[in-house]
Design brief:
By secondary structure, the chain is of the alpha/beta class. The N terminus is likely disordered. It folds into three domains: about 130 residues, Vaccinia Virus protein VP39 (Rossmann fold); about 110 residues, no CATH class; about 170 residues, Alpha-Beta Complex (Adenine-n6-DNA-methyltransferase TaqI, Chain A, domain 2). A nine-stranded mixed β-sheet has the order 3-2-1-6-9-11-10-12-13, with helices on both faces. It has a three-stranded mixed β-sheet with strand order 15-14-18, with no helix packed on it. Strands 17-16-19 form a three-stranded antiparallel β-sheet. Helix 12 packs across helix 16. The protein has 16 helices and 19 strands. The longest helix is centred in the N-terminal third of the chain and has 13 residues.
Amino acid sequence: MNQIPRPDILDCLANLSADEVFTPPKLANAMLDMLPKSLWRDPKAKFCDPFTKSAVFLREIVKRLDAGLADVITDKDKRIRHILGRQVYGIAITRLTALLSRRTLYCNKDAHGSLAAMQRLFKDEGGLIAYRPCSHIWKDGSCTVCGASEKAWGGKRSRDVENYAYPFLHDERIIKMAEELGFDVVIGNPPYQMSDGSGNGGAIPIYNKFVEQAMKLQPRHLVMIIPARWYGGGRGLEEFRSRMIHDRRIRILHDVLDAAECFGSGVEIKGGVCYFLWDRASEGPCRVYTHRNGGIENQPERELCEDGSDVFIRYAEGVSIYHKVKRFAEKTIEAIISSQKPFGLRTFVHGKELEFANSIKLYERGGVGYIKRSDVGKNVEWVDKNKVFISAAYNAGDTYPHQILGKPIFGERGSACTETYIVIGPFKSATETRNVISYIKTRFFRFLVMLKKTSQHAAANVYSFVPIQDFSRSWNDAELYAKYKLDKKEITFIESMIRPMEGDA
């Protein structure tokens, strides 16, 4: 008896890059559960994962179709051949994932090889898992299609080195083929980001490109899992956020605060993830499910876009609090928040260890130093005013209760900061400044920030729900809860999400 050779795809597993996250079967089935059950009994329905990695979605779809079509195509062999040959398609993201997907779906990396599960079903090795090596289209240092950095992904690269020019975005022939096939369901877990070429671990989001491309295909149903950071917009996501929260064809949204609940322990995606059902022929309010602390909370159907907010508010309790605060029509703290690099000083700038003649104090990454006043590149007039410094980024994980922001620092007269911090103010007096700090430390303040803060970055826009108070006095939570008439349930929710901030400024 001839020994079956070991598929060399197993040798390739060790070469998987760290950003290629495989979708657990439990998650894949939770996403498939959002689809109408009638699809599994339809022998003409077509399914596609246009960014398949290991074909988990496609494998689970085959299982469901096999059960659903048992009374339609009674012969098991004919049924499986029909499903694999006419209903289930994939577009791989790399050469390696094409092999992985074929190995999962056809039991061999070569769909028409002698070891494939369905002999003589396909004319070529790809089967219905498409993959074509593609190239980025460079202009002014970045790809015009996906925004990838030419510095990071351009130049002369070996054919064996992946350049991550994904076919579903870059190959017009594959895109046209997908359009002509007319899929009923497009489903998957797309790549999330690309290196921006900065060399500092910076990345640009790319998942939004895949969602937009999938919507262009106009499938009957679109199901995808992506990072939840788009709720608050940010780098390259402002238009995408606006489009998503105003699209009433998103009928189901599962909001998962801790990505480890989807992908397993050890996986952290700041801000969590979400998976959704987009229904081409159905418009209306969305059913929102919040996954928190291992449980699932079913929110009432609601619009994703709250009136005037232009942002998705994750929590039902947060919606009611937002509207109570909004009724006061007060100006917000965003108006007195600086831009990044408030004094024109980059993060890598460090002052001298000891104070010297005519020096000013510099709040820098890791502590304080001293620099010349002439080193300040902008907002020089703020140096001799009282202000508050607060971290431009703060990450303490996705577990709750959460601090949300770093502790505020009293920025005395004769001080500046690097871009490690942003500035709130300036203010007329030290007393007023300390009263602002008392406000920042309240759970109420940081809860309203949380409603918009979906990543570690805390730019000015995340403060746009936080009203300005009378800073001739200090503030505490009891006073703020009373002012905005929050009920016991709302207060309990705030305090379950935000932990106290102790310590001196």
